């Protein structure tokens, strides 16, 4: 399995992407952005596929 990290400029993008991933039945988690990548809204989505 591979894991992908999605970074966002705003929480709106996180919410929209989360809803789309849930509807598609994808495995993911929303978390704080890792310290070395800080920026944007402070949230990211880890997608496992």
UniProtKB/TrEMBL annotation:
User: What is the name of the protein in this document?
Assistant: DUF3343 domain-containing protein
Give the matching Pfam families. Se_S_carrier (PF11823)
Organism of provenance = Escherichia coli
Tell me the InterPro entries matching this sequence.
Se/S_carrier-like
Pinpoint the Putative Se/S carrier protein-like domain residues. Answer: 5-48
């Amino acid at each position: 399995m591979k894991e992908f990290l999605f970074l966002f400029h705003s929480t709106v993008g996180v919410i929209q992407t989360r809803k789309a991933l849930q509807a598609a039945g994808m495995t993911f988690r929303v978390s704080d952005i890792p310290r070395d990548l800080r920026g944007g809204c402070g949230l990211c989505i880890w997608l496992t596929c």
